[in-house]
Amino acid sequence: MVEVVKKGGDTLLDIRNLRIEATVYPPGESPKNIVLVHDVSLTLEKGKVLGLIGESGAGKSTIGLSSMGYGRGGVRITGGEVILNGRDILKGGKEGFRKLRGREVCYVAQSAAAAFNPAHRLMDQVVEATLLHGTATRAEAEKRAVALFKKLSLPNPETIGERFPHQVSGGQLQRVMTAMALCSEPDLIVFDEPTTALDVTTQIDVLAAIKDAIRDTHVAALYITHDLAVVAQVSDEIMVLRHGRLVEWGGTRQIIKEPRQEYTKALVSMHDIEHAEQKPGATPLLSVRNVTAAYGGGCIKVLKNVSVDIYPGQTLAVVGESGSGKSTLARAITGLLPPEQGTVTFDGRPLANRLADRPKEDLRQLQMIYQMADVAMNPRQTVGTIIGRPLELYFGIKGRERDKRVAELLDAIEMGKGFSDRYPAELSGGQKQRVCIARSLAAKPKLIICDEVTSALDPLVANGILKLLLNLQQHEKVAYLFITHDFATVRSIADSIGVMYRGEVVRYGAKSKVLMPPFDAYTGLLLSSVPEMRPGWLDEIRSSVTAGFAKMAEMSDEGISLASGH
């Protein structure tokens, strides 16, 4: 057991011997109580940031939510104290929680898409808690929100609040949620993977804004993440968790440079997967030619004359900023956004532009794993039903044979058949993403479009998933279109790379060619924005990167195309 040393100073949050449990219902057995968090203690001073790291299911989010007196999905706080501003919030009852949440403590969720109400405009949701608690007038709250939109580098900060959630990109929506938490000026913010959905360049802006907000407002924060390079930039201290237990706790520099426990050492010394680049075959499996696509009845061009090829058994990685067109390209390929111009050819035949016009076999052979696992699964279906659906739909597999195959897929994603009867709400963010991967694999496709499929996973689990995908590729010759903002992932899995900016492919070719200097201006900025696992890196890089991307945007606004051709 790790000894926790009580600290002096101006303590804001003091969690003592926290114990959290949940009830599971195994099929054919009596309900059982399981312990998720085992007597964890921590303290946090005003104006400080404590990073919580560990693998998926380690208890990071569960502990973070306990600071609001909240347990999701039937989770119960069964022991310990949560002392905030000198009082035990667990003794305040429902009325105490209502006054606390959104005022003293705010939460930035991992999946902004699942956290926003799709029927209400962004501004109404950003200022809601502020107005509910009466800490500002509507005009004051909106003025504060616009200032935060500017600080978080959101486009059109004066008017973006008039949009609905579906009208902004995933990365932009995550930044709006960060503004929503900061708007009510709380004492404590729980950041639950706030940069998971962001590209590396946007991540710099958001991390810098979070650091500035903490400095300017003296707010304290729990920063939950699986990315050590990110947490090293914002945290004063780091707490390492595994299986609901405290593994190690210390200053950021000590944890990064001199970890004491073996598990922490494994996290810090994580190495990228070595994937040898494969030469393309004679005929592409998927060929995208001169595709242009738009939203709003053709008013907003989101893809501009895009051409790429994907070969059997190989991986094309597509990288770029949030809003650059990566996921939109996937939507055009799958028929969710019919192209205005150009063609998409798959396995030697043209694909119908609209998803509804494609035969079942085309749907089976071209699968997609979505970025937002929270909104990609039916919350009322069990994991077994979710994974088993493609088996029934495409192959007619039912009953015991289906259950056996589901169990095999759960083993393949390192979860095990014991998860078959759980519901999505009973899973961590990383576990949800793995279920989505298993569902896609169940269809035995020729091509899988992977949209940020490892972004919610800790490094150890993410490496396992990448190895799984590479192994499947080797044996089944399945191809991948891998959308990501993580260059470590690109190096690990890609054979070819396409770099996108504002709907155009600005650099394209074999991995060895794209990642070798001399770089074009945009690709060079992307590579320089990849976080390094050392404290102080963010402060060194933020000014030059921000200036570089401002210049890029100015060039694009003036009509200067950055596309370098193929």
Judged by helices, strands and strand pairing, the structural class is: alpha/beta
CATH class of the domain at 313-338 and 352-557: Alpha Beta
Number of helices: 21
How is the biggest beta sheet arranged?
Answer: 6 strands, mixed
Low-pLDDT sequence parts: 1-8
Give the helix proportion (percent range).
25-40%
What would the average pLDDT be, to the nearest integer?
A: 87
How many strand elements?
20
Percentage of β-strand residues: 15-25%
Shape: globular
Index terms:
single chain, 566 residues, alpha/beta, Rossmann fold, six-stranded mixed beta sheet, 21 helices, 20 strands, globular, disordered N terminus
Task: Report what the structure shows.
- 50% of the residues are buried.
- Helix content is 37%, strand content 23%.
- The chain has 566 residues and is an alpha/beta fold.
- The chain contains 21 helices and 20 strands.
- Among the domains are: 111-185, no CATH class; 313-338 and 352-557, Rossmann fold (3-Layer(aba) Sandwich), CATH 3.40.50.300.
- The strands form four sheets. A six-stranded mixed sheet has the order 6-7-8-3-9-10, with helices on both faces. It has a six-stranded mixed sheet with strand order 16-17-18-13-19-20, with helices on both faces.
Helix-strand layout with pairing:
Layout: E1 11-24, E2 32-45, E3 49-53, H1 60-66, E4 76-84, E5 87-88, H2 93-100, E6 105-108, H3 112-115, H4 122-126, H5 128-132, H6 138-151, H7 170-183, E7 188-192, H8 200-217, E8 220-224, H9 228-234, E9 237-242, E10 245-251, H10 252-257, H11 262-268, E11 286-295, E12 300-310, E13 315-320, H12 326-334, E14 341-346, E15 349-350, H13 360-365, E16 366-369, H14 383-395, H15 399-412, H16 429-442, E17 447-451, H17 459-476, E18 479-483, H18 487-493, E19 496-501, E20 504-510, H19 511-514, H20 521-528, H21 537-557
Parallel strand pairs: 3-8, 3-9, 6-7, 7-8, 13-18, 13-19, 16-17, 17-18
Antiparallel strand pairs: 1-2, 1-4, 4-5, 9-10, 11-12, 11-14, 14-15, 19-20
Helix pairs in contact: 6-7, 7-8, 8-21, 14-15, 14-16, 15-16, 20-21
